[in-house]
Write a structure and sequence with these properties.
Elements: H1 4-9, H2 18-30, H3 34-47, H4 52-64, H5 68-81, H6 86-98, H7 102-115, H8 122-137, H9 147-161, H10 165-178, H11 183-195, H12 199-212, H13 217-229, H14 233-243, H15 251-263, H16 267-275, H17 286-298, H18 302-315, H19 341-348, H20 353-363, H21 369-374, H22 386-395, H23 408-424, H24 429-447, H25 455-468, H26 476-483, H27 487-498
Helix pairs in contact: 2-3, 3-4, 4-5, 5-6, 6-7, 6-8, 7-8, 9-10, 9-11, 10-11, 11-12, 11-13, 12-13, 13-14, 13-15, 15-16, 15-17, 16-17, 17-18, 19-20, 20-22, 20-24, 23-24, 23-25, 24-25, 25-26, 25-27, 26-27
């Protein structure tokens, strides 16, 4: 038998590098194991970030998966490393054409032919040049000719989607300095300021667009959305009357107009425009299917709405639960708090966390849920505490692990709120005071590690504490009977909750 000492001498130290994972990725691709290949390529790129071949293969897999923007990022980096590699240029041309960057597509295709005129992909490069040229010839006056500007505009838009507003604003402001008539940059800059809560600056930019390009549809739609969110009824009505009279030719404008009209509740008009472009290249756009489904449903075309929604879920499964027919619109009367968007938003923007918790809870009960969640400033996730993030996850139907002991107390605390809600649904203004009291208790109890062992008894205790502080002749016996528990149990949980009242703070 070999000694342990001798065995160790024969061990060769092995640390996998980028090439190792790249070879494993190629093997996985040859076996049609795309997910495994993607994992290996991601690791290979991390270990060898300056290997253009690895970046190229990673980009090709990303393109085939439909993640064109990320693929273009990888290809641009690969091109910086190896600017004379024809294959990188060809895929840059193809990817640019797919996202509408026709100037880039034409440039990279021409560069490919310059380097490898008789290359393997020469025919594809010629096709891309022909396509880009035809798009340019049919572009409306005022379209940007500087491909770098178009790239920066797209980069800024992606930064906005990621919430990196300051970075996007810096890029867009620089574009405007260089291209003072590039109205698309103004429109996006306006949205970035609106998302930051600077609505006056946002509106000023849109008015500047309309002064320079009267009738700019994107500016009109953006102003309409701002008026809608800010409840400026007079401006909203005037803009809506204008929008419904428009008849845009381009499909991009039809999409923008249709989505805007659907958001503000003009469903029949929205349905007309979104349906008119049903087969015009929006198959991978979740936003199109979302708004078309809503417009169809509220225009009376339920079957079409449901089939459209099914396509959306295939693309974006996280939208499950936001169907236009999911809310109980017909069960709410005009005085229901669930319908009172202003009340809910007021709670969401409160300086007190317990009131924000009530607002988050109400979002899950409101027909305005999607509108509120989509607003740029009403839900401030980055500023939320851990407790608020848990409640928001619950509101958005997040699946919690039932065997996770760390979230069980939270789930029981939510169950208390649901029990209380069951007895008042739909909620009226007077009911909100009971819930406000519960969320004060809940917030403090969660911070102190309270287990919330008996949600039904806790709901009873909360109701008794609330009513007994405001009314005479409220007995423990009557409240206990209403919740189906004993008076002793009610007393026990009242005593446990009392310690979380603010007046018991030391």
């Amino acid at each position: 038998m070999k000694s342990e000492k001798n065995t160790r001498k024969n061990v060769v130290s092995f640390i996998p590098n980028g090439e190792f994972y790249y070879k494993k990725a190629v093997q996985a691709l040859n076996r049609d194991q795309d997910e495994k290949a993607l994992k290996y390529l991601r690791r290979a790129a991390e270990l060898s970030p300056e290997d253009s071949l690895i970046l190229l293969q990673y980009a090709i897999v990303e393109m085939e998966a439909g993640r064109i923007d990320h693929a273009l990022e990888l290809l641009r980096k690969a091109n910086e490393i190896d600017p004379n590699e024809p294959e990188i240029l060809l895929f840059l041309a193809e990817g640019s054409a797919q996202v509408g960057l026709t100037e880039d597509a034409k440039y990279f295709a021409e560069e490919y032919l310059r380097l490898d005129e008789m290359g393997e992909y020469a025919d594809e490069a010629i096709d891309i040049i022909d396509f880009a040229t035809s798009i340019e010839e049919n572009s409306p006056p005022g379209s940007p000719s500087n491909r770098e500007v178009v790239y920066l505009q797209e980069k800024a838009r992606k930064l906005m989607e990621l919430g990196k507003l300051d970075e996007a604003i810096e890029i867009l402001e620089n574009i405007i300095i260089d291209q003072p008539d590039f109205w698309a940059a103004y429109n996006n800059l306006s949205l970035a300021y609106f998302y930051k809560g600077e609505s006056e600056q946002a509106r000023a930019l849109l008015y500047e667009v309309l002064q320079g390009d009267y009738g700019n549809l994107h500016a009109l739609c953006n102003l309409t959305v701002m008026a809608y969110y800010e409840k400026d009824e007079e401006e909203l009505q005037a803009l809506t009357e204008l929008l419904v009279k428009l008849s845009p030719f381009s499909f991009e404008h039809r999409y923008k107009l249709g989505a805007t009209l659907a958001l503000i509740g003009c469903y029949q008009e929205a349905y007309k425009w979104l349906r008119s472009m049903k087969r015009q290249g929006f198959e991978d756009d979740p936003g199109y299917y979302f708004w078309f489904s809503h417009a169809a449903y509220f225009s009376g075309f339920e079957e079409e709405a449901r089939s459209t929604w099914a396509k959306l879920i295939e693309i974006d499964p996280e939208k499950d639960g936001y169907e236009p027919w999911a809310m109980k619109h017909t069960e709410l009367d005009a005085n229901s708090i669930e319908l009172n968007r202003d009340f809910i938003v007021e709670k969401l923007e409160s300086e007190y966390r317990s009131e924000r918790l009530l607002g988050i809870f109400l979002v899950g009960k409101s027909p305005h849920q999607q509108e509120i969640l989509a607003h740029p400033s009403w839900i401030q996730v980055d500023n939320y505490s851990a407790i608020e993030k848990l409640f928001l996850a619950y509101t958005m139907d997040h699946d919690f692990l039932s065997d996770d002991g760390t979230v069980k107390p939270f789930l029981r605390s939510v169950e208390v709120a649901e029990i209380l809600y069951k007895f008042v649904e739909p909620m009226k203004l007077n009911d909100t005071f009971l819930f406000q009291m519960w969320f004060v208790l809940c917030e403090r109890a969660l911070e102190n590690g309270y287990p919330f062992k008996n949600p039904n008894a806790l709901a009873a205790a909360t109701e008794y504490m609330y009513k007994s502080s405001r009314m005479k002749n409220v007995t423990k016996k009557s409240v206990a009977a209403y919740y189906g528990i004993s008076t002793a149990t009610l007393t026990k949980y009242v005593n446990e909750l009392i310690q979380f009242l603010p007046l018991f703070d030391k």
